[in-house]
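Exercise (ungraded).
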Amino acid sequence: MTIDMKVKKIKNGTVIDHITAGQALNVLKILGITKEYPKTTVTVAMNVPSGKLGFKDIVKVEGRELEAEELDKISLIAPDATINIIRDYEVVEKKTVSLPEILEGVLECDNPNCITHFEAAKSQFIVEEKNPIKLRCVYCERSMDEEGVVKQF
Amino acid sequence: MDFRGRDIISIRDLTREEISFILDRAEEMEKSPPGNVLRGKILACLFYEPSTRTRLSFEAAMKRLGGEVIGFTEAGVSSVAKGESLIDTVRTVEGYSDVIVIRHPREGAARLCAGIADIPVINAGDGSNQHPTQTLLDLYTIRREKNRLDVDVAILGDLKYGRTVHSLAYALGMFNARITLISPRGLEMPREVLSDIKKAGAEIQEVTSLEETLKGIDVLYVTRIQRERFPDMEEYEKVKGAYRLTADMLRDVREGMIILHPLPRVDEISPEVDSTKHARYFHQVKYGVPVRMALLKLILEG
């Protein structure tokens, strides 16, 4: 593919492909990859032509294999993302992200008066729409959109 | 339809058929009360916020069916004042009672309690979120007075913070009502609530003039601007008294138009309206009892 000519292959790490176009930087945010992140090479490609999505973003993270919980978080803003785990330049595992119907504990409700902020209760959201994301707090019934989700990371 | 052991937390949890079923049972309760069918049962009222009508009508409903009532009417007189969590309070109270009715200033409190208690929980208002028994009695009043729910209804007042209007509009949407919303600037119904109500099936429009709307409706539902929900008192001062319904304004309305209000009112309905044939808000208050009787019986006895 053209992309391989533009962006170097990585030796070990994770390639997150098929990210909804425009969401690559939010994916980095969700993964906690910032200036202070331990030294590793991160490659971002945005608006790459894609047969399936029209356009897509790609993120390559050298030296890090993503955990299942991180994949759940990525699914919040990039429901079609695919994850390739790379060892010694080879793809050793392919995963897709999947958004559960009920999201538990991952996010906080953005309603400051929601009971979950005052009692020992785990947050719970019903996933009403997946792309773009729309969540509804099981407790206070307030809905939260992509902006509210990204704000938390 | 079996409601035994069921929590009543949000109007969203009920289908159109279930709502109609509850309203039918309420009508039976009003016409021929069944006597002491809840003898030996105990209702616990946990009121963390002030209430007159909701609490008293729940108590009256339970007593009319032969049951007993325990509870507190303000958090200050219970162990809450000592810092007890809501979760611990509910775990304690469920050991003493058969059903819990809770009002709490935080949104989601009733749903949380329902998840903890093994006995059924009824939401009597959780912050600015839901107040399902108010919605049921509002629907009951409209059906009782107009014989149908697919009415032309205008909802006037604080549509931003008013929990009763959100649930009422949503429920009326389920019954294909045509809804007109009128509110002072800044107190419009939140966009997301509006889109939910449209999804529920309502034909809905927003206007600013009450006078124009009055002529073409069957039901006018008036609400108070809720001082206690304003984060900023300056904002409250700007909008308080923004509208006031007077008897003069009722000259050209439909013959059978009815005016409802969840009460308490401040100055949004002038007292001279009370004696017009359109005023039904005190009937509405009374209907709270058969509706809550029906719910308590359905939940505790089937």
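Further reading is listed at the end of the chapter. For now, observe: The interface with chain A takes residues 10, 12, 85-87, 104-109, 111-112, 115, 126-130, 192 of chain B (CB under 8 Å). Residues 157 and 223 of chain B are 5 Å apart (CA to CA).
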